[in-house]
Amino acid sequence: MTSGGQENEARLDPGQVIRRFGNRCLRLRCRPADPLAQETRELVEHLWLILGTEGGVGLAAPQLGVDLRVVVIRDPEAPKAKSRTTMINPEIIETFGPDVAFEEGCLSLPGLYRDVVRPRGVVINFTDESGHVHQIRSSKMFARIVQHEVDHLDGKLFVDHLPFRTMVWLSPRLVLQLLGHLIWKLRNRS
Ligand SMILES: [Zn+2]
Hints:
Blueprint: H1 6-12, H2 38-54, E1 58-60, E2 70-74, E3 84-106, E4 109-127, E5 133-138, H3 141-153, H4 164-170, H5 172-187
Antiparallel strand pairs: 1-2, 2-3, 3-4, 4-5
Bound molecules: zinc ion.
């Protein structure tokens, strides 16, 4: 498990480049963020900047090498004025509905798209950048993006949800990544 010490932060080397598949930052369990801290404000700005540049629908702090529980989501189904949601310390408190398959991609795994099975709906609690607490219940695209992004905060990628058989076929690099992840899980079990 990763703590937020100075040495650790230095090693993470937060930068402007999206961390790609295989980078250890993507396998960290992130620590809670202080919604009103300067570092959180700067991180949120940075996330929105990079998401806008890359054109995705969601981005999580570890994808920029920062182990804080912060994600930004741009909901393509929402009206433009309400499409942007910043989530600090998001917590999925309930999932509901049938499990459904939906094609996912990730800015950390460019060019890779696969159907992932997840619950259709979620209830999520989070704090916004002003320190206000919100609860949202959704069974739309938003719920799918939320589950994908919150996974990032716990060191999970969408490929972890795929059947092992599919993982083997994807590429030898994914298999190596899977082994690395298993070791990571064993190390963090206690
Ligand atoms: Zn992703």
